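Hey all, sorry for the wall of text incoming. These are the two entities for the joint prediction.
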Amino acid sequence: MSSREVLREEEHELVARAAGGDQAAFTELVRIHQHEVYTLAARMVADRELAYDVSQEAFVRAWRAIGKFRGDAKFSTWIHRITVNTAFSHRDRRKRKRTESLDSVYQEPVSESLSPERGGLSATMREPLAVALDALPESLRSVIVLKDVYEWSHTEIAEHLDISVTAAKVRLHRARKSLRITLWDEHKAGAE
Amino acid sequence: MKTRCAVVRMRLPGVESVDELGPRLSSHVETCLTCQAEAARYRTLRRHLGALASETIEAPDTLVSAVAAQIQHPAAEDRRGTMVRRAAIAASAAAGAVAAAGAGTIIVIGLRRTRSAA
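and here's what came out:
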């Protein structure tokens, strides 16, 4: 059995125990998935403080619903979907918080302090892309993040965002076009 | 700009590859350097966005313990979270008020000095 299979087996066991009400098992699942959930939340809402709230609430929602989790999908897929839904339910609260301008330790831009686990982004492109992504309107950012970063289908995006597939495609088109203009016409990232 | 170039430029953000543009536009891209450059920009953009999937933003250290506390004592944690937020907002507001009061005092003293000098 490969190490990946062992991990999946262990996770399966943790999920089963958590579904039976074992808080320690669920906390272990939180420990395993905290960074990926926080990353997804941060990419969706482009705000560290709000990403923290979204992550916390997503895990709490998952805890309440884990009895219904049938294990057809991976736990990570399931928690990602809950995180996306939670991010959307926080939209209005986010607007309110911005006006309060409360200083917080998590308010630095999402584009900073990434872990060493970096992908293949060229140095010239990484920062401008992260900044441009954060600057997109939320309706466009959420679609391009789910489609081009997390490879969701248009149908999945439409379902979760409660929009039509056509609207999802239109938003993706606008988001890509906007990033292309920002990165090549305005900042001239020169990342080709 | 040629009509076909304009159509390619308009449709490129919505496709995953040039092939999706259809045979006529795809063959145009093969012979047009401007359109090839534009297609390459979108390819680069999609590639870099895809690479973000393997990047992780470190969650704050307190996240696991906050969730653990929340699932153990949900009501108490809700109240505590609200109180902490209110305290932070109140502290921020109080700091603002102190600063405003200080500024007001300085202005008043300044005015009195100006009047007494006159």
